[in-house]
Design brief:
Layout lengths: L4 H30 L2 H34 L6 H38 L2 H31 L3
Helix pairs in contact: 1-2, 1-4, 2-3, 3-4
């Protein structure tokens, strides 16, 4: 597999920035409201995911619309389905382990371990991203030839 670091940074970088902001905001607010580390870990995970995948989906739709428009074709519900399928292939396996196990567990334990809510949440996000991106990038590269040609 070719190392497409610039492409990966362009694809995932802005989504990560949004995800970090959403994660920290949701975790901080949830902890203030509930004082619960479990609720904080789940809220941080879900808010980060919503921001991340919302951006990635919007990016894919925008790129596909632009590509189809240049070819004189319309973006349709079928095309949206293909965009969604490509995202499931790209992130499905990585996301199952990440959202259901790794990220919430790290966001629960690390704030306690480091003695700082925001520091622990940020460290948890960074560590979880390592286990998330390896399978996600491999799947993305494998899916480009078959699932991302419109």
């Amino acid at each position: 597999m070719k190392w497409n670091v610039r492409e990966w940074l362009q694809r995932y970088g802005p989504a990560e920035v949004l995800s970090i902001l959403a994660t920290l905001a949701a975790a901080g607010l949830t902890f203030q409201l509930t004082g619960s580390y479990v609720s904080t870990a789940l809220a941080g995970t879900w808010a980060g995911n919503a921001a991340y995948f919302g951006y990635i989906l919007a990016l894919d739709i925008w790129q596909t619309r632009r590509q189809l428009r240049a070819a004189g074709r319309a973006y349709s519900a079928h095309t949206l389905g293909r965009n969604l399928r490509a995202l499931v292939v790209e992130f499905g396996l990585a996301e199952v382990f990440d959202s259901l196990l790794i990220r919430p567990a790290l966001m629960y334990y690390l704030p306690k371990a480091v003695g700082s809510l925001s520091g622990g949440i940020l460290l948890a996000k960074i560590l979880a991203d390592v286990t998330f991106y390896v399978p996600a990038i491999v799947s993305y590269e494998l899916s480009k030839k078959r699932l991302r040609r419109f």
